[in-house]
Amino acid sequence: MSTERYNQHILFSARPQGEIEPANFDLIDVPMPSLNTGEVLVEVHYLAVEPAMKGWMEARADYMAPLQIGDVMRGQGAGIVLQSQNPKFPTGTMVSGPLGWRRYLATDGRSIPLRAIPPSASLPAALNVLGITGLTAYFGMLDIGKPQMGSTVLVSGAGGATGSIAGQLARISGARVIGVAGGREKCDWLISDLGFDAAIDYKSENTAQRVLELCPDGLDVYFDNVGGDILDVALNNLAERARVVLCGGISRYNVSGPIAGPVNYFNLVYRRARMEGFIVLDYAERFPEAIEALLQHLDSGELRHRETILQGFEQLPQALINLFSGGNIGKQLVAVNT
Amino acid sequence: MSTERYNQHILFSARPQGEIEPANFDLIDVPMPSLNTGEVLVEVHYLAVEPAMKGWMEARADYMAPLQIGDVMRGQGAGIVLQSQNPKFPTGTMVSGPLGWRRYLATDGRSIPLRAIPPSASLPAALNVLGITGLTAYFGMLDIGKPQMGSTVLVSGAGGATGSIAGQLARISGARVIGVAGGREKCDWLISDLGFDAAIDYKSENTAQRVLELCPDGLDVYFDNVGGDILDVALNNLAERARVVLCGGISRYNVSGPIAGPVNYFNLVYRRARMEGFIVLDYAERFPEAIEALLQHLDSGELRHRETILQGFEQLPQALINLFSGGNIGKQLVAVNT
Fold first, then answer.
1. Comparing C-alpha atoms, which of B239, B284, B242, B240 is closest to residue B139?
2. Which residue does chain B place closest to A252, by CA atoms?
3. Which CATH code fits B132-280?
């Protein structure tokens, strides 16, 4: 680490027309923040990117305030408290929160809400399995999907951060879990490292055919991160009273103009099934319960996580763009100030 | 009524290619049935038609055995016990059940399950508000839709049998109810007779615009009988944690080939909402509870029903075809032997 500290921000500078481009952002030099009473200085070490950011950039997602041109790009980050005037976060504390795309920031821990990271956890874990990603997987799979012992569960985008954790949580619940992911490497990881029962490489296999073969009794839970064709395959293979958990729709996010809806939605009637969306922030009151459960699974070794890390603050736009070509395995992070 | 009794059946003779046609059926003369021990002779007075029949005819619906070519056409009916060797159903008992498209039939009441109609009810009511139609509205609206005091509820196909009852049940629950129906006559009926708060004539009004005006805070419940564009309008106007009840999709039933899915399904995520299908037969154990509640609402005058009745057994195919042009207000029945 360089001893010379300097600060930069990345601003959201233009709404994307179609795909996200580096030109949608501005990297600017800014002064190192100075501390007011009650504040801490955070040195950011990791920033996380996620597909939902595209919806924020397009002002399409309306469950939170839209990003305004000129805003510091919104995003989760984790870092270390370098200086502290706040007894809640002494110097050296590992913290995470919606730090934004900044190298350094000063906050009282409320204007930008900080959480102390458990000492047994790592900074990357705090942005992955113990962060919004893990919480999304936890509430989406367990509260909406409700896998039971012996359930058959299909997860799309299973090689990504949320999907890989959601699938493992279903496995821990006693379900049989099949992941859909792009490429052999991701599929091998799901089976060998994460204990998925099977994996379908949608890039080289016929997903509809493979789901039929692997799930002859149908799907009790489908956890959807992608939308599009795979959602339709799942809808065509629902078991009775199945739950379709709508977590994301990454196949939609890069399409401009009208996008086809799920042709097979009417199988929800024939199968007496349910398709349900959720926003993880609604579960804020139950985050502590979930973090505790996730920590226990981590400690027992039942739950694993993985990060794909790009080096360098200026790589943030590219890291975000990479998500949409499936370049990441597990959580895509960018390492900063290291 | 003619004193000369004769029996006829209508057989399902050919799967429809596109729309249902009279040529999909055969009217045949058959002998009057003779009674075996334990059986009753039922004179059918009304037979009901419903949109779901198209799915049975096409073997598209798979929640019950598909109709086979040559089967007596399946359908609910109501009639009078003319002769009885079964103490459960004495002569003169009003009965309903899946009688099929027959003028007369003999059954022990189990091979074709019969239910005695409460003496205070009429035969048409037994096929409408107290039959599968009313039960569908009851469980779909109350169990899946769950309207509350002050909820905003939109019902499509509101001029039809199920929609008109579902909307009234929501109103009785204290909800504000808006119906979508085709034509001024249906809309006036919804408001003046059934106590809907508003009605949208989708044939002469801009449904999207009207939903926006009438439901500025969004829909807590959307009870869908039609699918298609109106489903998409509803998905675009969901309140948080809304429930979309998938009851039917009549706009789909006459389309052959691929049918577009709901483009706006992803609003289920932004609105943390749910879209759920159901099959009323799954609730068989709770039918008595529902019938009792419906009878009470009828007796108190809070719940009204209406039937559109074609005269003559041979009119059954046409009555079924009429459903798809929205010719009926309330339940479409055919009067037989009267």
1. B284
2. B266
3. 3.40.50.720
